[in-house]
Specification:
This protein is mostly helical. Helices cover 62% and strands 4% of the residues. The longest helix has 26 residues.
Length: 95
């Protein structure tokens, strides 16, 4: 039997990557490395939701579940942008 897992992915990955790209214009001081850090921080704050097709997951969710996912995504992104911004604006530690 041949298995094909290429379609399996974490639902939040695409959503986070698209949101970071969309919001990046509001953070002109963030370079590409910082934006990657934002994506990592946000993804680490969200649960893993593995799906084959994003549309399948969204089809089977109730409206409150969809709203909960959007709220969690917004919260994780807000935290990540604030955290990365704060960490990169700190003065260097001197010995």
């Amino acid at each position: 039997m041949i298995f094909n897992f290429e379609q399996v992915h974490n639902y939040y990955e695409r959503a986070v990557f698209e949101a970071v790209a969309r919001l990046s214009g509001s953070y002109p001081d963030f370079d590409s490395g910082m934006l990657s850090d934002v994506a990592c921080m946000a993804l680490n704050r969200l649960p893993a939701r593995y799906v084959r097709h994003d549309v399948d997951m969204m089809f089977y969710l109730s409206e409150p579940e969809r709203a909960s996912i959007e709220d969690a995504l917004h919260e994780a992104l807000a935290f990540a942008f604030a955290y990365v911004g704060q960490r990169n604006n700190r003065p260097p530690i001197t010995a």
